[in-house]
Amino acid sequence: MEDVLFEFYRGDTYSRDFTIEGYTSPIDKVFFTVKENVEDKNPVLQKTLGNGITLVDEDEEINSRTYNLTIRCIDTDDLKADYNYTFDIEIHSPGTADMPIKKTIVTGTLKVKASATRTFNEY
Predict the structure, then answer these.
(1) pTM of the model
(2) Residue of 13, 15, 11, 6 lying closest to 117 (CA atoms)
(3) Phi, psi of 50, rounded to the nearest 5 degrees
(4) Which of 16, 34, 29 is closest to 76 using CA atoms?
């Protein structure tokens, strides 16, 4: 698992692909969760499969799946500029009825930079 940096301007749309390789179980849920502090109960931003995360490519021969994460321009309205948030991407597989499989595949820092052109409610 790698520690990565996602950095973009508040009020901009952000899109990034990520690939999961070598994972043979089916994946039925994907979560991108951002918090001010990893110990916080509630996220400041969360995207899920079907709501900001889409499957864009799958290669069953090499057990590879590529997803796209899209953060809309209005998703960052309430985030602090020039602040380092913590995030992770977690996948869920069905497993068994009493024991679903959960796996964190990426952790990192999300930094939303200030933009001089952006004004509140400009959309």
Answers:
(1) 0.88
(2) 11
(3) 95, -10
(4) 34
